[in-house]
Amino acid sequence: MNPLLKIFLWVPAVSLAIVLTGCSPVLFDSSLTKDQGIYSNQPPDVMQNIQKDLVVVPVRYHGMDGRIHQGQVVIHKALEDDIRTIFDVIKRKRFPVESVLPIAHPVIQKKGPYGLSSDTNNTSGYVWRPIVNSRKLSMHALGLAIDINPRLNPYIKGDLVLPAGSTYDPSTPGTFTTDSPIVRAFKKLGWEWGGDWTQGAIDYMHFQKIPQNLENWVKEHRKN
Asked: Quick one: pLDDT at residue 20?
């Protein structure tokens, strides 16, 4: 029998497709429904009028293992197209990302109450929480921000470094710098990068954007 025919008969269809195309299978890390990603495992004081404007966006990227993963970003619906564009750049540039799981995902929920833990390198958008050391709502709570690879791109304010024990080393893959194509792509779309902040804290992981039509809405929800 022809050796190639033997391979065709032995290799399962999916594996054979991989052999023929030279592509690796996508690892689906998160496949939450909209209700699971937005409404489940939330603090009791969460505002439903904010949740109703959130969407769950599937995104693909190269993991730290070099394989293609699919995760999900929960974000305000006004920024959905931006997130898709950014992750297209992330995937095309092979910028490595540790994981992209909604805060409601069981893996994140195990890290702390409602998934609120600084001990993570997970990339996420919406998180119902205040700003660090403040009562004012974070831009994440409004679905207007995303943190990427926190352990490689930490929040630094004086001696406070979050996640604890993190270090910022621009030479490490997955770390942002001012000339990073990912940073440039965010800025081209009108996003603000915490790595540019010069007053108080510097937040290398953090990107945020307030669409013009939401400026008053944001002020109303962050007035306290």
From this structure: 37
Which amino acid is located at 90 in the chain? Answer: I
- Give me the helix-helix angle, 181-188 and 80-92, nearest 10°: 160
- Coil, helix or strand at residue 188: helix
Burial (CB count within 10 angstroms: exposed 0-12, middle 13-18, buried 19+), residue 48: exposed
pLDDT in tens, 157-192: 999 999 999 999 999 999 999 999 999 999 999 999
Q: What are 74's two structure tokens?
A: 């929960």
pLDDT in tens, 15-66: 433 333 345 699 999 999 999 999 999 999 999 999 999 999 999 999 999 9
Dist. CA 210–CA 139, nearest whole Å:
9
Task: In whole angstroms, give the CA distance from residue 103 to residue 115.
Answer: 6
Q: d(Cα 214, Cα 209) in Å, to the nearest integer?
A: 10
Q: Which helix (H) or strand (E) holds 156?
A: strand 155-157
Instruction: Say which residues have a Cβ less than 8 Å from residue 6's Cβ, sequence separation at least 6.
Output: none
What is residue 65's DSSP assignment? T
In the numeric block, which tokens belong to residue 44? 């009791």
DSSP state at residue 124: B
Question: Quick check: 64 and 172 in contact, CB under 8 A?
Answer: no
Rounded to the nearest integer, the mean pLDDT of the chain is: 88
- Whole-angstrom distance, CA of residue 169 vs CA of residue 152: 7
Identify the pLDDT of residue 23: 58
pLDDT of residue 8: 39
Contact 101, 135 (CB under 8 A): no
